Hints:
The protein contains six helices and seven strands. A hairpin with a 2-residue loop joins strand 3 (44-51) and strand 4. It has a single domain, classed as Rossmann fold, CATH 3.40.50.1470. The chain has a seven-stranded mixed β-sheet, with helices on both faces. It is α/β, with parallel strands linked by helices.
Amino acid sequence: MKLIVGLGNPGREYENTRHNIGFRMIDQFASKLGVTINKSKFNGLYAEAVVNQEKVILLKPQSYINLSGEVIRKFVDFYKISIDDILIIHDDLDLPVGVYKIKQKGSSGGHNGLKNIELHLGTQDYKRIKIGISNNKNIDTKDYVLGKLSKEEETIFHKIEEMILVILDDYFQVSFSELMSKYNHR
Length: 186
């Protein structure tokens, strides 16, 4: 069983913000799979699907991004999911808009949601897809990540969505190292 988690904040006021790119990608993947993320458990909205004969849970923690680890831990424990079968999709300030990176493991890079996940999972060794939102040093970081996407960013993210959906399809077909080799561009 795999757990794919999109990070974001619940509530209409956070829709289409930079911090909610993980939610957006999970919603798109659910739509592609023909499922709706409408079940609720452990302060998370989720859907179950089967991809390539493997059960997968698509999860949107509802505890606010900085407390995502608490929700993820509860799903991991309840469904007995291996850390190796977790994939987190999240925004990344250090990558330019339109750039993504697939990683096997690593530090939080200052991302409070990832810090909380590390705290609750007890490891940094979980898979992730980082999606660049860039960083505007002229705006307070909190205000920037919670800011709405510009029309230009929206156009770029629409293209990235298509690529992320292809990557997620391949996630169930090839090894993770193959996935990184195929899609990470230097």
